[in-house]
Amino acid sequence: MPPPEPGTFWHRLDAAETRARLGCGTEGLSEDEAAARRQSVGFNRLPEKPPRPAWAVFLDQFRNLLTLMLLAAGLAAGLVGDTTDMVVVLAVTLFNATLGYAQERRAGRMLGALKAMLAQKARVRRAGTESVIAAEGLVPGDLVLLKAGDRVPADGRLVDGQDVEADEASLTGESEPVAKTTQALDRDAVPLAERVNMLFMNTVVTRGRAEMVVTATGPATEMGKVAALLDAAGEGQTPLQERLDQLGRRLSLIAAVVVAFVLVQGLATGEPLAQVLLTAVALAVAAIPEGLPAVVTVTLALGMVRMAGRGAVIRRLAAVETLGSTSVICSDKTGTLTLGRMTALEGWALERAHAFAGDDRPVGLESALAPAGLCTEARLNPATGEAVGDPTEVALLRLAERAGALPEPGRWRRLAERPFSSDAKLMATLDGDGAACLLSVKGAPDRVLDLCDSLLTETGPRPLDEEARQAIAARMEEMGGRALRVIALAARPASPDEDLATGLKGLTLHALIGLADPPRPGAAQSIATCRAAGITVKMITGDHRVTAGAVARELGLDGEVVSGADLDCMSDAELAERVAAITVFARVTPEHKVRIVQALKARGHVTAMTGDGVNDAAALRNADIGVAMGRTGSDVTREAAAMVLTGDDFSTVVGAVREGRIITDNIVKFVRFQLSTNIGALLAVLLAPLCGLPVPFSPIQILWVNIIMDGPPAMALAFDPARRGLMEQPPRGRDAPILPLSRLARLFGFGLLMALCTLGVLWWEGGAGQDMVRARTMAFTTFVLFQVFNVFNARVGAESALGAAALANGKLWTALAGILALQAVAVHWGPAQALFHTTDLGPAEWAIAVALGASVLVLEEMRKLALRLPRLSS
Ligand code: ATP
């Protein structure tokens, strides 16, 4: 089959001719034909800007004032003959840039892999079989099946469908959804916005069900023609990164003062300009935690990979951080807190109760259950016993099958349909068999009952009087109280042109069916975990309040149950006032969800909200963390969400919150560690002249400590496991400072101790007539060892740093061992000695350095012990 001629006006052809021209018939292309077409037209992708080349990313690492200053100072040193310093500065800068480059690439690769997990999928029919494939594999001629909430994966001609509407704002600017038809249009020249039998790539189906034949893919689509090259979506900074930037700027100010001081002081004592300059710049590098934002990105990205492994795919970096502060999780019930696997357990029909639990075949209910077989979108394959479709519908269909109530094959033809919507909470179909028409309805009993005026009995319909209504309501309450989802089935004879949107009335109630949907194993435990962690869980469901309340109790959720109707009577202020006490929101619509999120936000909560329906997108966008269902959710909800659950499981949300807490914790640890080193280095250099001592470190040593020594343990902190009690504390406030004042004061204390001990060693060892090189080597080594011990202080809060958790991070121990080995090389290896201006140290000198370095940990442990003592004795 030749590929279709370009420029065909597909909207002019009727459905049959479109299928014929594209060679797909009603069964779709064969896999071989699809593969052949893909060969000739390529993948169905819009052109993207090529990623930045590797060399540009590498050069970016030098676009940083400090690095440039360092290079300039190194070159200046070289010019005045200090070539060793120049070479080392160059090497260190290069090393730093390579590290930055590697981190950026790694984070990029990880994010790319996560994006691929969220790649768009499309449901196609090929050779008569429906399957879900990656949208980029679509070719012209493919039959694509779409439903409300799907993003259209390519351009196509609508050949079959019900009530299809599409939001084409992204293409035509038209803000209202456009109603679509399968009819051919009668002109060639029709503007895009009026091609009402076509669907266009990247627009969204907002209503109905559609079958389209793909007419154009990738760059040949209308979107491909107008779209400028798509930028790979850039990420802004996360709040934590912003605050770290702020911290960095403040430190830069302090550093600038110190550097100026060093410059003036150095020049005043007559040291060579180039040397003074290099010291000053090296100090600036040491003082400013310029590596922080990069480390944060990598840590967040690592966390995203870990979360993806557990079924939570994060779509925005900032979400990882926000997750850690989550204080309320609003969760759907069906499929998230429960398994979403429904079984019909019992029912009420023909004025009697029926049990469906065993294997017995329900007898005499053929006509009572008939609407369950007709009014459905689910499909049963009698040969294999497999069923596809919504779990509620599948359960009803299986019941109808057992009761022999399925429609005769081939008898009924669907004339019209009103799909289920969570607003109306019911579904209706109109079917005809040539002679008669039948209107069938199923849905929430409170909605369906309003449309009924008669009740099916053994002898036929009888009027639905007040007494019967009350009996039915009591049944509903009773079944709901046992956590069953109750569905009402109703029907009546109809005419072929009935309007299902407005004409649903005068129905006969056939049956009430109670469906069981067991809680997910682990959901109750996760809710208990949330309670311990100060996170409130709220259930938000379309189900009836009695059913929802019963399921909530089974899950251990206590609190007020409120329905959507109650919400309608509350003002926003009132809702915000009461929202804390409400645990279950039942019979809510997607609009209610938005109000609930806003009320929670007004109370200062960080809210995670789950959703799957098309209309949930607004609520997800409003929530701090929108959580979409990967399996049951629509494209639109997934795109609005910050996180997508691949398994639709509530426990995954809680796991992700825990992971978010770990990550934020680890970033904070890193900041503490890095900052105390910076303070220590600054104070040592600043206090030296005040104590009548020379600058304790050479510029190369400063760079060594800051870049080579500090880097590996800091990176290893990203892998720290959860600390004990992490999920037994209330959530960290969104605006909580990274470093509260008390912690800042302690960091200053650590830095001061490092500086004083380093200078003390210099003074003691470097007294009159003693070996100054040895003294500086010892001071240098002491400072490095301080970092080794101080990392343990950075890892903990008020608890001891020496508990079992001290051993928990293997990577950290490797990093520390690496540092010690490198320091030994810097001190004992001849060529390194020349670079670092060091000399061999004896065992006693090493022991002193270790003892002094350890003091920062020992003193802090003693302080904590002293604080604990009064509590222990009381
Ligand atoms: P959530 O997932 O938020 O817990 P839900 O899935 O229970 O909500 P909806 O899907 O909005 O909520 O269903 C609301 C009500 O509509 C149900 O209680 C049920 O009575 C009825 N219902 C659900 N699915 C169908 C369906 N396929 N056809 C007809 N009625 C349905």
List keywords for this structure.
26 strands; nine-stranded mixed beta sheet; 874 residues; 4 domains; binds adenosine-5'-triphosphate; elongated; Calcium-transporting ATPase, cytoplasmic transduction domain A; Calcium-transporting ATPase, transmembrane domain; Rossmann fold; alpha+beta; eight-stranded mixed beta sheet; single chain
Q: Helices, strands, pairings?
A:
Elements: H1 15-22, H2 31-41, H3 54-60, H4 65-79, H5 83-117, E1 121-126, E2 129-134, E3 143-147, E4 155-167, H6 169-172, E5 178-179, E6 198-199, E7 204-216, H7 222-226, H8 239-268, H9 273-287, H10 292-309, E8 312-314, H11 317-325, E9 328-332, E10 343-349, E11 352-355, H12 370-374, E12 379-381, E13 386-388, H13 391-402, E14 413-418, E15 426-432, E16 437-443, H14 445-449, E17 452-457, E18 460-463, H15 466-481, E19 485-494, E20 507-516, H16 523-532, E21 536-540, H17 545-554, E22 560-563, H18 564-568, H19 572-578, E23 582-586, H20 590-602, E24 607-611, H21 617-622, E25 625-629, H22 635-640, E26 643-645, H23 650-690, H24 699-709, H25 711-717, H26 741-765, H27 772-795, H28 810-828, H29 830-836, H30 843-873
Parallel strand pairs: 9-21, 9-24, 17-20, 21-23, 22-23, 24-25, 25-26
Antiparallel strand pairs: 1-2, 1-3, 3-7, 4-5, 4-6, 4-7, 8-26, 10-11, 10-20, 12-13, 14-15, 15-16, 16-19, 17-18, 19-20
Helix pairs in contact: 3-5, 4-5, 4-9, 5-10, 5-24, 8-9, 8-10, 8-23, 9-24, 10-11, 10-23, 11-23, 15-17, 16-23, 19-20, 23-26, 23-27, 25-28, 26-27, 27-28, 27-30, 28-29
The chain binds adenosine-5'-triphosphate (ATP).
